[in-house]
Amino acid sequence: MRLVVFDVDGTLVDSQADIIASMGAAFAEVGQAAPTRQDILGIVGLSLPVAMQTLAPGADHTRMVAVYKDSYASLRVTKGVASSPLYPGARAALDRLNARNDILLGVATGKSKRGLDGLIDAHGLTDMFVTTQVADFHPSKPHPSMLHTAMDEAGVTTADAVMIGDTSFDADMAQAAGMPFVGVAWGYHPVSRLTGARAVLNDFDELDDALGALWGLT
Asked: Where does the record place a coiled coil (predicted)?
């Protein structure tokens, strides 16, 4: 069996509008101007406390995290799947891989469990993933804890696992875990930051060939 672990924000779904809006609400809560869009997208993938510390050193991060989570949850309820739409081809790629008897799917994300569960339910992805690793239970990316646990739960080793992501945090996490990394070009970090990637996908149609080249799959 092989395990394909996906990042979520910027890889499977485009959640930037709600991330930026919720970050704006968090900064307003502590009386600070929100960072630029570029700066906010630059920290996507980190756990929220680490992201807040990076963007607002010295602020009340506990309050900011709470407001961010409440804002994001409210937007998700109000907007439904439009809150975090799947990127073109994402659902088809997941369905193709899930239909194989030699592939297992997983998630490693900076989202909270509440956030990931809501997204999975909204998109009808329940039972798609055999392992779902979230920020609630691990150190922030790029620490390899999420990937170590994902491999343990799936019963595979690094030779039979791969991380798919859009940020340098995903690339560095995979490297720290000793796992191959495949980047995506449509996410929140420029391709130049995806160091060590075995391949960089321009769309999801290229995923099957990238996995085939990695493992000799047909």
From this structure: none
How distant, in Å, are the alpha carbons of 62, 81, 121 from that of 182? Answer: 34, 26, 26
Structural domains of the chain, ranges and CATH numbers in brackets: 2-14+86-215 (3.40.50.1000), 16-82 (1.10.150)
**Known catalytic residue: 7?**
yes
Enter the pTM of the model. Answer: 0.90
pLDDT digits (tens, 9 = 90+) for 160-211: 999 999 999 999 999 999 999 999 999 999 999 999 999 999 999 999 999 9
Sheet strands (E) in the chain: 2-6, 103-108, 131-133, 161-165, 181-184, 199-201
CB atoms under 10 Å from CB of 187, counted, come to: 25
pLDDT of residue 83: 80
